[in-house]
Amino acid sequence: MAQVMVNFRMDEDVKKNMEQVCREMGLSMTAAFTIFATKVGKEKRIPFEVTAEPRSSALYRRPLRPVEIQGPGAETAALMRKQDRLEALCTQIRRSLTSIHIAIPSSITGLSMERIRLLCGDELKDKTAGISKAAKTLFSNRNIEMLREKDLSILDEYMDSLSSVAKELQQIEHTLIPVMKSWPGEDAVGFEQYEQRLAAVSQKLDELAPLMQRFLRSTACINSSRVVQARLRQAARSVETAYVLTALENLEALVLQHYDLLEDQVKARLESDYLQTLELTLRELGRAEQGGGDIGAKAALCLRTVNVLSQVISDNSRIRQEWNERSLEAEVAALERLAAMRGDIGGSINPEA
Q1: pTM above the 0.90 mark?
Q2: Does 126 share its domain with 107?
Q3: In this predicted model, what pLDDT tens digit does every residue of 289-339 receive, in sequence order?
Q4: Quick one: how far is CA 129 from the chain centroid?
Q5: How far apart, in Å, are the Cα atoms of 245 and each of 52, 56, 70, 254?
Q6: 5: domain CATH number?
Q7: Contacts of 74 (CB under 8 A, 6+ apart)
Q8: Structural domain span for residue 232
Q9: Mind listing the pLDDT tens digit for each residue in 201-217?
Q10: Euclidean distance between CA atoms 319 and 324, whole angstroms
């Protein structure tokens, strides 16, 4: 069979992610696309569901944060996105440093300009190379399991700091290079501000090391309310009925406010019984919406289930709060009696009360 060449454009990050997944499956991208094209040709359809986001459910279906996405495959994808971002930031920093360094005319002299040459050509480049090398080690295959156990919010903080460095260098690049090109050739007495800004960038890069150490010493904090929130959103992905989605929004707010305060036994019952029933009713509603079934009856079942979960969470959180208040009052009363019995306070408090 004759072979033909097919060329098309795609987003660079999409290509990188697909290449990584194909390598893990032992495939080339060419083989993967050939499998896709063969299946389309045989089945006369796209071999997976392609849908538009329903307008009525857009409010509830907010994008999930990486820590809220469930499943090992999703966790790996989230880590890959962080790796891509870290590598992209290092590349952007190196590009700015190189642009500044090669744009410095030999005719411009002076201590400030020599310091700028040293910062862009050596010091900052070496520090960025160290960060890039550490990132490759951090995201290597042998460290993936370790990363799953760390507090990824600290890693996000690290990358946000690195992003501010990249933006600062871009601003310096866009202002310093035109100034150098138009410089009349005299001593660089007007470049002190750029020297100071680059020195501040060097200091910011040094401050990243303690932040990375804090990340490596961290442990992931699994917030049960976030897990329930993720299950609610996942179950509602196929639902379009607006008033059901509004009820789910209210339930989600209740979960985030009170769920972590509930007794462990109550949480276990909610997650094993009540929440599973809600997921089932939402799934049935989604099927009715897609297949033209009795949407009203299915939606009513969803609302009744949401109402049960809301009552369980509200009543148990109220009971827990009242119990805590009574317990605290009893502790204070016991403390008062003890202090009176010891004679540490006046006799106005009756220790027998």
Answers
A1: no
A2: yes
A3: 888 778 888 899 899 988 888 888 888 766 666 655 666 676 777 777 777
A4: 25
A5: 17, 8, 21, 14
A6: 1.10.1220
A7: none
A8: 224-342
A9: 999 999 999 989 988 88
A10: 9
| DSSP-derived secondary structure for 283-341 | HHHHHHHHHT--HHHHHHHHHHHHHHHHHHHHHHHHHHHHHHHHHHHHHHHHHHHHHHH
Using alpha carbons only, give the angle 107, 110, 114 rounded to the nearest 5 degrees.
Answer: 85
Q: Find where tokens 């507090």 sit.
A: 151
Q: How many domains does the chain have?
A: 3
- 3-state SS of 108-145? CCCHHHHHHHHHHHHHHHHHHHHHHHHHHHHCCHHHHH
Q: How many residues does the chain have?
A: 353
What is the C-alpha separation between 310 and 307, in angstroms, rounded? 5
Cα angle, residue 234 at apex, residues 232 and 235 outer, rounded to 5°: 65
Smallest CA-to-CA distance from 250 within 198, 310, 165, 207 is with 310
